[in-house]
Amino acid sequence: MSLASGTKLGRYEIRSKIGEGGMGEVYRATDQKLNRDVAIKVLPTSLATHSDRLHRFEQEAQAAGTLNHPNILAVYDVGVHENAPYVVTELLEGENFRELLSTGSLPARKAIDYATQIARGLAAAHEKNIIHRDLKPDNLFITKDERVKILDFGLAKLSQPTTDEVGQTDIATRKVHTDPGTVMGTVGYMSPEQVRAKSVDHRSDIFSFGTVLYEMLSGRRAFQRDSAIETLNAILKEEPADFGDTDSNIAPALERVMFHCLEKNPDRRFQSATDVVFALESLSGVTSHRSQQTMIGSATLSKDRSAKRERWIWATACALLFLLASAFALRYFFASTSDKPLVKLALATPENVTFPANITISPNGQLVTFVATDGNGKRHLWLRQLDSLKAEPLPSTDGASEPFWSADSHFIAYFSNHKLFKIEIPGGRPQTLCDVGEHGGGTWNRDGVILFGGAQGLYRVFAQGGTPALATKVSPKEEAHRWPYFLPDGRHFVFLGDAGTTEDHHIRVGTLDSQESEILFGAISRIVYSAPGYLLYVNQGALVAVPFNPSSLKVTGEVATIEERIAEVGPNHEFDFSVSETGTIAYKSGGYNSQLTWYDRTGKKLGTVGEPASIVVLTLSPDDKGAAAGFVDADGRASDVWIYDFKRGTSSRLTFDPNGDGNPIWSPDGTKIVFGSNRQNRGGIDLFEKAASGTGEEKLVLQSNDSKYPTSWSRDGRFLLFEDWGPQGKGEIWVTNMSGTPDPKPLLQSPVFNQTQGAFSPDVHFISYSSDESGRNEVYVQRFPVTSDRWPISSGGGFQPMWSANGHELFYVGYDKKIMAVEVKVGKTFESGIPHALFDVTSMKYLGGNSYAVTSDGQRFLISSSVEADQSSPMNIVQNWTASLKKK
Predict the structure, then answer these.
(1) 158 or 231, which is more confident?
(2) Number of domains making up the chain
(3) What 3-state class would DSSP assign to 484?
């Protein structure tokens, strides 16, 4: 079915036809809602009823739609037009790889670059258990900015996470008919196991990748005979021609990488695309610093005695220069940090800018960057030279958070929309390095290695970009590894081992050589190293320093206080301070205070509730006449539950135990509060119940060794949802009976990802929740009791889902810090509309639980806002900070 210009497919308007193939026709179109050009692939009507083709089309959309990587074609939407399915993707400008290779082989450096990008894309797909199964030049595209894109996951297969099954995984409950016994792929690029019609895994893509790499380097196909049968036999029994038989001059190291991909036996190939990436990047790293002969022809280097003698002389000279430079550096450093006076400065917030945070000073001590919101409500990175009176926003850094500097002070890295970016200073444009899931700070050494925090541990990636690899592993009692910081040798690093209980939080030290790490001491804070030998972190709200030997990796002295109050700016112990290699500290003073503030649906401020306090979790009473809030202490730990009475304008303390109480949830009749507490000192957090009036004793509801946090009490009073964090450190959603004997049961659990923040719909037939299974938190709705029915709600990230009292709307917080609203219909089934933003909540204080609540009519929002952000307190600079230690 050909579509004429102007034809509309939902919100998309066809402009022109740009291609066609076995899977359908491709058109240029305009997304009228987002005002952007897109590509639409339409399956011809004549083939729409062909079950195999239809399943392949659906599989392409569903498999590729779960991927979000710069080297994979982005899938935006799917639909049906006049019985013909279609898929909407990003529109690419450039040329197909087949066209590129039609002119012959590529230069080795260019081939390595393209191959590395392809391998990165495959690694991202394989990480989600998706196999391409038809990798070939026709399914690769080079954009005008030299970005390689992998196309057409029409033969993709969701691989089994276990190795003892050979069938296919169901996709959206439909069986994909590409089981063993069915040959699928393209002749000439198929793996031996595909030719034999055996079950395949991700290593099949590695073989196909090898055939593409061979073609890039030689200018001819690896397996091409006079007939398809002969070609298939060659794949099974023959090797591609050696490069010595071609006109190409390919280095042995690169040739070995290519032939390692083309091993007939999958067990003898590279075992992951990530391994291929590292192998290629090691070649790429050499090519950027040596001559062509040295670059990939290391075997041709002279080995005679004169060369060895020359290298020995140079090594000796370099060693002497290093000793002299070290002596000079030590003398200069101690003069700069010990002899120079302490200097304190205050940097004012730029005009018409609010909520400055994430202040970060460059290693050379000359530049400061921070995150702030401009007059249009957009959050950017800002940059200021210390010898300048003015800060400037960095272009195209919308939504930036957690910035950190390269070791040479030439680049800033930051996170935005679950991607890691870098931007060159000055005048650069943001470059995407990789996709990230949950993140918690980063650090960048002089060798171009970046570490960043995550739920499974720290991850490492090269500063040129790529697929992140796990660098550390969380222990059973930990929730995540956060806030890494490289030590002077660039190999070792310190970081926070974040956990569910206070006693399990530790500052740890690790190395790039192993995923194992060691405990240094207990603390709940981000951590940095400062020369000549200190670790800086926050304790009881104060910035402190402890002497530390980076060679022995040992603490060598007592803790000293630098600043009494440091602001906390994020949910995971992200305290706002930074240090340079020249002895300068940048920080933002403040505490943990929040202000309960009323807003309408447009974001207009309507008033405040009570006085500023250390509020972290809040919930409205069913009649909207009051609120319960959890407070935190100076270390960010749960302290007590308080009740606000809006009519009387008063607040009263509900719990008085010296241990932590928090995460309050109202009963549907408003007479009781359930909360979490560690008062029994069992190593976990148990659930307790108390009258909302404050009278009577607390009643133990549920206890176990796990940490439990109540999230929703069903309107009929029968059930309570709670998060359960067990020894594996994964959040699960459980339910227990509240109208009789408690019988806790898991509803949603996974050993791999977190499922949290469960909330009952008003009719108790559905629950909303947040899950990070896609690599970032998204909001979903599940039927209750749980069945296979599930509906995605958010797009682009979301958390803290909340139902309106009438069940007609769902609210959540987007990753761009906006309150989002979605129209929903509940009944025998569930329907949802398109999420739309209500207003910005950049100032919202989020530390794990609900930081906002919505009234029964859905018209007003009570939000826990950061007092420090509202006051726009100045950013502080302390030069030669070690001089302050001598005064104490």
Answers:
(1) 231
(2) 5
(3) strand
